Amino acid sequence: MGRSPVRHSICAKLLAVAAALVAVYATGQQAQKGGQEGVQQQGYRNMTPGQRAAATRAFLGLGAVPDNAAAARGEPLFEQNCAFCHGLKARGATGPSLITSDTVLEDNHGERLAPFLRKGVMEKGMPSFATMTDEQLRDIAEFLHLQVEDVANRGAYHVLNILVGNAAKGKEYVEGHCLSCHTAETLAHIASRFRTPDQLQRGWVWPARDGAMTATVKSAAGTISGRVTQISDFRIAVETASGETKTVDRGPGVQVQIDDPLATHQQLVMTLKNDDMHDVTAYLETLK
Ligand code: HEC
Ligand code: HEC
């Protein structure tokens, strides 16, 4: 398997990326010298991090700029469904690294990845994800593209995209969209609860779920309600007030009513634009 043509093309691609990074670095050095002579005013060294990242991505011929809001939604999906085999950041584990995957590199916004994921490669241990929605698969694709950018731009891209927001606009957004549920007090020191802007963004886009979801399940056997500990299309497990966990198959005649306080928070997150997300993070980051 190590000798397959696919492997060779991956090696070739890695070499190309390495060579390109060296070239970009060299260009930077050159520009540094050139700057003195006034030949190249816009040297790599004088660029803002944003311009540098853009120059690198153009040089490497990377595809469409990843949609960061979609990637943030894709992250927990990737963690739950893929990280076990491909590693938390898609760098590989028992399954291959997806950073160097042709399927990922040749995809722009899920048009190649989504059909691939839906089908899987069962005989080789890659499960099929036929029940995921188009949107979920696209979000996972964006998450993967962001990981590729992150590696190609040596981490610069990621940091850049977390901190580019406009805090004043973020404040406006929060006042308009978030204070219907949260209060200024509950958000007051939100940033000091997270170590990095990265974690802060993750924390507000996908708040940890500490058993916030409850359900009432009606079946022929009676009615139970309590905290949901597990849920799928086929089964639901509920921990009742007495601490007992009951599992019910979701067949016909079983009615499940879910009360999820986070549902509206999540609906809002699904409508976030890239700029909104960056602005809100930038604003929350000021709330130490
Ligand atoms: C049970 C382990 C497992 C899980 C879970 C899993 N994969 Fe895979 N995946 C694999 C294996 C093994 C391969 C290699 C298949 C092959 O050799 O053709 C693979 C291949 C792939 C490839 C193609 C890599 C290439 O060579 O181009 C992509 C893309 C991919 N997986 C994405 C995902 C995504 C996204 C998820 C989650 C939605 C996921 N995988 C979940 C095991 C897994
Ligand atoms: C419809 C109500 C609703 C809206 C609107 C909403 N949230 Fe939430 N949010 C919740 C609920 C419910 C939780 C989970 C319970 C909790 O921890 O308070 C939550 C959790 C959070 C958390 C995690 C709190 C923690 O203690 O870890 C943050 C941060 C957060 N929301 C920020 C925001 C921001 C920023 C916005 C606006 C962009 C927003 N929320 C909009 C209802 C909402």
Protein described:
With 288 residues, this protein is of the alpha+beta class. It has 4 domains: 5-46, no CATH class; 68-162, Orthogonal Bundle (Cytochrome Bc1 Complex, Chain D, domain 2); 165-208 and 265-285; 214-261, no CATH class. The chain is 50% helix and 11% strand. The protein has 13 helices and 5 strands. The chain has helices spanning 5-36, 49-59, 68-81, 83-86, 102-105, 113-119, 134-152, 156-163, 167-177, 184-187, 197-205, 263-270, 274-285; strands at 214-219, 222-231, 235-239, 245-249, 255-259. The chain has a 5-stranded antiparallel β-sheet, with no helix packed on it. Residues 1-41 have low confidence and may be disordered. Bound molecules: heme C (HEC) (2 copies).
Q: What are its keywords?
A:
288 residues, alpha+beta, Cytochrome Bc1 Complex, Chain D, domain 2, 4 domains, five-stranded antiparallel β-sheet, 13 helices, 5 strands, flat, disordered N terminus, binds heme C
Q: Regions with pLDDT < 50 over 5+ consecutive residues?
A: 1-41
Shape: flat
DSSP strand (E) fraction? 5-15%
Largest β sheet strand count, sense and barrel closure: 5 strands, antiparallel
Beta-strand segment tally:
5
Spell the H/E element sequence: HHHHHHHHHHHEEEEEHH
What structural class should be given to the helix and strand makeup?
A: alpha+beta
Give the terminus-to-terminus CA distance: 52 Å
Count of all domains? 4
CATH superfamily of the largest domain: Cytochrome c-like domain
CATH architecture of the largest domain: Orthogonal Bundle
Integer average pLDDT = 79
Rounded to an integer in angstroms, the radius of gyration calculated over CA atoms is 23 Å
What kind of oligomer do you see? single chain
Bound molecules: heme C
The proportion of residues forming helix, as a percent range, comes to: 40-55%
The main sheet orders its strands as 4-3-2-1-5
CATH topology of the largest domain: Cytochrome Bc1 Complex, Chain D, domain 2
Secondary structure tally, helices? 13
Q: Any idea of the CATH class of the largest domain?
A: Mainly Alpha
